[in-house]
Amino acid sequence: MSALAAVAVVESPSSEPAAIAVDGLTTSIRIAGNWYDAVRDVSFTVSRRETLALVGESGCGKSLTALSVMGLLPAGVGRISSGRIVVDGVDMTAATEAGRQAMRGDRIGMIFQEPMTSLNPVLPVGFQIAEALIEHRGMNRRAAQKRALELMELVRIPAAGQRLDAYPHQFSGGMRQRVMIAIALACSPKVLIADEPTTALDVTIQAQVLALLADLQAREGLAVLLITHNLGVVASVADRVMVMYGGDVVESGPVKAFFRRPTHPYSEALLAAMPRVDRPSEALAPIPGQVPTLPDMPSGCRYQSRCPLRIEKCAERPPLNPLPGAPEHRVRCWVRAP
Amino acid sequence: MSARPAAAPLLVVRDLAKTFKAKRGWPVPKTVSVRAIDRVSFTVERGEALGIVGESGCGKSTVARACLRLIAPDAGEVRFDGLDVVAAGPTELRGLRRRLQIVFQDPASALDPRQRIADALGEPIRVHGIAKGREVERAVERLLDEVGLPPSAARRYPHEFSGGQRQRIGIARALALGPDLIFADEPVSALDVSVQAQILVLLDQLRLRRRLAFVFISHDLGVVRHFCQRVLVMYLGRIVEEGPVPAIFEEPLHPYTRLLKASSPVPDPEQAVAMNLQEGEPPSPVNPPPGCHFHPRCPFVMERCRVTAPPLTEVAPGRRVACHLFE
Amino acid sequence: MSAAAAVAAPPVAIAAPSAWKRATRSGGLAIGLVLVVAMALIALLAPWISPYDPDAQDVIMKLEPPSAEHWFGTDAFGRDVLSRVIWGSRVSLFVGTVATLAGVLIGTIIGIISGYYGGIVDKLITAATDVLLSFPQLIMGLILVAVLGPTLFNLILAITITAVPAFIRVARGSTLAMKERDFIDACRALGFGDLRIMFLHVMPNIMDEVVVMGSLWLAAAIRTESTLAFIGLGVPPPTATWGGIIREGFDNLLDAPWLSVFPSLAILAVMIALNLVGDGLRDATDPRTPQ
Q: What residues have CB less than 8 Å from B4, skipping those under 6 apart?
């Protein structure tokens, strides 16, 4: 920790190894006895103090990507077919299950959409926060409880001291998500994976939780992998964004560049389909049809069946090409980034 | 406004109130009451889409259920086209059912899983004696066509459809009796953005083609801004602001409306959501704060906000706000 | 711990095998069904397949051990035990089936009404159900038959009465769960009557659970009938019933154990078959398995 803090002072992100490095990840899932690639050849890195957002609609593979990184694919149903995942210097794909388990909750913090189902309803929240410390750090109960209180204060739970012994049902949705964040951060991980962390929350509470996450990220120097369907949330908190469709990354780049010039026809369509609170009503342009199921995915570009720009070449899978003059902004499209 | 029957609104709701009671606690249970809606009044014009926005626990769904008499309101008046909905007897209520319909949030739970689509859409037509025999089949086909589904959908069961298609079926069922007003309770919240847009476009077409009125309940300000002409903002059972959509979204007056708008994410990095670390926990509807319910979270709180609830006052034509700042 | 949560809810669209596939994967349901159908056929075809007249006495051939001529041996009156077990299945299965069907019908209707309307109606029905359920099933049947007298009709009536509260409870619980679903509100908004909603919309959706319960209760009803017959409160002699045959055999249990053993095995087979069916159906309709 202290050694890394020293590196942080030097402020040279390029020399620091990425906290999450995923290279050529392909994840398959089994449907009716056959295996299909639900995540295809996905590569990315997330550095410390950086937020990468994986965005897309249901079934695009964003959550499967996160589960792959955490080593939590349901056995027998999902498997990593190829690729390498390195988290905080540890090769997750080469590690044993015990090794991966030791990483989760210790060096990888995780938060999920439903804080109610992720918390044990019959245990006090203070105990649940302390549990991670006892499990991973071998702390004694008293020290763990003391640290739990600090963590509850860190995530700004009002009157934390009195609520250490409260049960999850005595908390509101937003407060429960704060408890989940406290658990995720208990062991001071460098990596935080947040799968739709604010989707179940009301907008004003969502804004609070996003503010908290941004604040904690800055303080703890976290690398955050944010999984979300909400482009508004992406614009507010992410540094870089990857848009997924049908298991493919179709566009990736810095957030500002992406929103200034959304280039893949799917990204464009997604933004045009989103009613906006900041503009007077204009005609929405829905994307025709629906995402094909995995067995029905077209070969080549997976968006071709719904794409207005489709050409013959789309039957081949386009590469993720950089845009001219913007090497970090990459698009997988024969028409837009040939 | 009741003096001009020619221009009378389609739906008039006056001082509607509903309190839910539940026994909680052990070993000595205490009766807990939640004032879900507290003297709510509004009107809906023919062919108009009125939005109701607010966060969970603000009572917006209860308003819809009370207006439809799916739950009995404790007090207040609901008049639909001059007819008293709350006092209606069985025969009158049956007539009202044909003209007032509802579309639900979760299309999976809104359809009977054991019923083919042909029956789900045909049953209301038969029960109300609108058509018989083969005419019902044709009516079902027309309904499916109107919501953009092929006739073959009639033979299938709900689980064979995607979420967006099921929501289309839910809409077709609401249209089956030819209503004048549809309560749409978070109709697009469970759907992906691209499908959400398809449903919004469909609802808008229906509104114009059939001159349908909508009470459109949503927590998503963007969707309301897109779909509605007028909007009510609710907080803990009370209306805090009401007005035409452009005015409310351009210049929200009530501090809660402002907070809602500032918190709503926009796909533009230059307009990041207003993130305030200090802002407190929302109060529970079981035990709302006295005076203005919003005062513990309000940046402009004054002494009297803690004591007296501000009345909903007209600040401009068609624009009402319940806030001591605007009295 | 959060890891467990993620595994419990993988956000992966997994195509679930059909209910039938899931149920028959272990083979239990299939074996159970085959057994049940076989027994029903034996009962129906008794006049044609039983080798002897079940009531024909033969003083010379009494208490014969099993042989090629009398597979299950003969009893103290020289009657063929195989034929009596075959004929006895008719009474046992008939009483059990009729009583269970009646219990399902009455219990489900009352349960749906109770759950659907709620309020005071529900409170009264629930209280009555709790009282009835607090009596052990057998004691309840015993008291009823003792009071009413041991006739076929009273036997069925007594067993039905013991079954009804169990079905009320199942149907009521499922109805309460179903009432939470929006489609019930949709039906009300469409102006459907309560009867239509209860019996055309709620009932088909709760029958899964009722049928599972029914197959397990059928086993219980057959057991109750046999027990009552065993203690002399069954259909009066000379009609052959399984419980009755076991009791008659008891007087000669040490010399001629086959008299009691074979009807007991018949009961055992029915119990196993029906429980296999019940458990198989439960697995097939378990709401926790992905649909």
A: none
User: Nearest by CB to A117, which of C9, C12, C14?
Assistant: C9
**What 8-state DSSP symbol labels residue A318?**
P
Instruction: Report, as an integer, the average pLDDT of A323-332.
Output: 91
Distance CA C99, CA C91 (A): 12
Strand partners, B216: B51, B184
Which residues in chain B have Cβ-Cβ distances shorter than 8 Å to C187? 112
Omega of the bond prior to C238 within 30 degrees of 0, cis? yes
Contact by Cβ (8 Å): B30, B207: no
C-alpha A219, offset from chain centre: 19
Q: Please report residues of A whose CB lies closer than 8 A to that of B273.
A: 206-207, 210, 232-233, 236
Q: For chain B, positions 193-232, list CB contacts with chain A under 8 A.
A: 193-198, 200-201, 219-223, 225-227
Please give the C-alpha separations between residue B271 and each of A213, A259, A275, A277, in angstroms, as whole numbers.
18, 11, 15, 11
Beta bridge partners of A98: none
Range B41-64 average pLDDT: 92
State residue C146 phi and psi, 5-degree precision.
-60, -40
Bridge partners of A157, per DSSP, are: none
Size of interface B-C (CB pairs under 8 A): 57
Six token digits for residue C42: 């034996």
Comparing A81-95, A323-337, C224-238, the range with the smallest average pLDDT is C224-238
- Note the pTM of the prediction, 2 decimals: 0.85
**Is C3-285 a CATH 3.40.50.970 domain?**
no
Q: Burial letters for B225-244: b for 16+ Cβ neighbours within 10 Å, e otherwise? A: bbbbbbbbbbbbbbbbbbbb
Q: By C-alpha distance, which of B250, B222, B254 is closest to B238?
A: B254
CB of A64 less than 8 A from some CB of C: yes
User: Cis peptide before C204, with omega less than 30 degrees from 0?
Assistant: no
Beta carbons of C136 and C224 less than 8 angstroms apart: no
Mean of the per-residue pLDDT values of chain A: 87
Closest Cα to residue B171, out of B127, B211, B221, B120?
B120
Whole-angstrom distance, CA of residue B38 vs CA of residue B167: 31
CB spacing of C186 vs B123 below 8 angstroms: no
User: What is the nearest CA distance from C281 to chain A, expressed in angstroms?
Assistant: 22
Instruction: Name all domains of chain A by residue range, CATH numbers in brackets.
Output: 3-238 (3.40.50.300), 239-338 (no CATH)
B121 close to B173: Cβ distance less than 8 angstroms: yes
What pLDDT is recorded for position C261?
Answer: 83
Cβ <8 Å between C1 and A120? yes
Share of chain C above pLDDT 90, in %: 24
Question: CA–CA distance from A253 to each of A54, A231, A321, B219, C98 (Å)?
Answer: 11, 14, 11, 30, 71
Domain boundaries, chain C: 3-285
Question: Distance (Å) from the C-alpha of residue B11 to the closest C-alpha of chain A?
Answer: 25
Terminus-to-terminus CA distance in chain C, angstroms?
A: 26
Quick one: closest CA in A to B275, which residue?
Answer: A211
Residues in C closer than 8 angstroms to A110, CB to CB, are 2-3, 6
Which pLDDT does position C291 carry in this prediction? 35
The DSSP bridge partners found for residue A50 are: A223
Q: Which residues of C touch A70 (CB under 8 A)?
A: 3, 6
Q: What is the pLDDT of residues C83-123, one digit of tens each?
A: 888 888 888 888 889 999 999 999 999 999 999 998 899 99
DSSP secondary structure string, C18-52? PHHHHHHHSSHHHHHHHHHHHHHHHHHTHHHH-SS
Q: How big is the CA angle at A300 (ends A298 and A304), to the nearest 5 degrees?
A: 60
Q: Which residues of chain C neighbour B114 with C-beta distances below 8 Å?
A: 204-205
